[in-house]
């Protein structure tokens, strides 16, 4: 049987692992110093602060955008609401004026005492030295006063019929003064007070 090798055994050399030199990939010669607990906490805090600040800025921007939208929406709604309020206010004032006219006319036209009280109240606004004082009344009101036995003439003044005067009102005149206490004028004063949102004057105000 022949030998598996043709060369002499003495010529066979043992195979040796070749020498490998160089740096391992990804490895550096420097050895990093391990981080301390304080450094790790500082890095965490910095990351938290950066994220917190970014979140605040983002939230603030969103709030400003929403506030701008609300302002725009409010301005859009305010105009028609204001117009509605103005219209409603005028209608309410007109309604109050109409109701006041109806109540005042009814009250004064059926009760002579109210007409008589109106006459004396109006006379208080006349100057003390007024002469030739004339009180103009609707003829129906003069009839009511007559039926109630109320005097229509004194040394200081006299009542005169005037169809132009609405029942429930009067006009007091003298040689130098003129006071309009008609229903229309008194109601117009009420309407003006309502429109201007001012308190009504007391009975003693002139």
General description of the model:
- The protein has a 4-stranded mixed beta sheet.
- It has helices at 37-110, 112-123, 139-147, 183-196; strands spanning 133-137, 157-161, 170-173, 178-181.
- It has 4 helices and 4 strands; from the N terminus they run H-H-E-H-E-E-E-H.
- It has a single domain (50-197), classed as 2-Layer Sandwich (hypothetical protein PF0899 fold), CATH 3.30.2320.
- It is an alpha+beta fold and 206 residues long.
- Residues 198-206 have low confidence and may be disordered.
Write the layout of secondary structure elements.
Blueprint: H1 37-110, H2 112-123, E1 133-137, H3 139-147, E2 157-161, E3 170-173, E4 178-181, H4 183-196
Parallel strand pairs: 1-2
Antiparallel strand pairs: 1-3, 3-4
Helix pairs in contact: 1-2, 1-4
Task: Record the strand order, biggest sheet.
Answer: 2-1-3-4
SSE arrangement, N to C: HHEHEEEH
CATH homologous superfamily (4th level) name: ATP synthase, E subunit, C-terminal
Radius of gyration: 53 Å
Helical fraction equals: 40-55%
Strand content: 5-15%
Mean pLDDT: 74
Query: Between the first and last Cα atoms, what is the distance in angstroms?
Result: 155 Å
CATH class: Alpha Beta
Question: What's the quaternary structure here?
Answer: single chain
How would you describe the shape? rod-shaped
Domain tally: 1
CATH architecture: 2-Layer Sandwich
Number of strands: 4
Biggest β-sheet description: 4 strands, mixed
Number of helical segments?
4
CATH-defined fold name: hypothetical protein PF0899 fold
Low-confidence residue ranges: 198-206
Supply the helix-strand structural class.
alpha+beta
């Amino acid at each position: 049987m022949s030998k598996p090798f043709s060369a002499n055994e003495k010529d066979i050399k043992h195979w040796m692992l070749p020498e490998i030199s160089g740096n391992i990939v990804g490895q550096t010669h420097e050895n990093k110093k391990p981080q301390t607990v304080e450094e790790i906490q500082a890095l965490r805090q910095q990351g938290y602060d950066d994220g917190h600040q970014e979140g605040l800025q983002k939230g603030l921007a969103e709030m400003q955008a929403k506030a701008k939208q609300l302002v725009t929406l409010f301005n859009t709604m305010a105009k028609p609401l204001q117009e509605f309020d103005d219209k409603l206010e005028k209608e309410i004032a007109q309604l109050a004026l109409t109701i006041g006219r109806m109540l005042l006319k009814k009250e004064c036209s059926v009760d002579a005492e109210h007409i008589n009280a109106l006459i004396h109240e109006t006379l208080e606004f006349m100057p003390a030295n007024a002469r030739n004082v004339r009180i103009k009344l609707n003829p129906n009101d003069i009839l009511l006063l007559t039926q109630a036995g109320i005097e229509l003439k004194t040394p200081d003044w006299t009542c005169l019929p005037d169809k132009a005067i609405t029942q429930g009102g009067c006009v007091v005149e003298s040689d130098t003064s003129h006071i309009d206490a008609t229903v229309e004028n008194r109601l117009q004063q009420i309407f003006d007070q309502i429109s201007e949102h001012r308190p009504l004057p007391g009975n003693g105000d002139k």
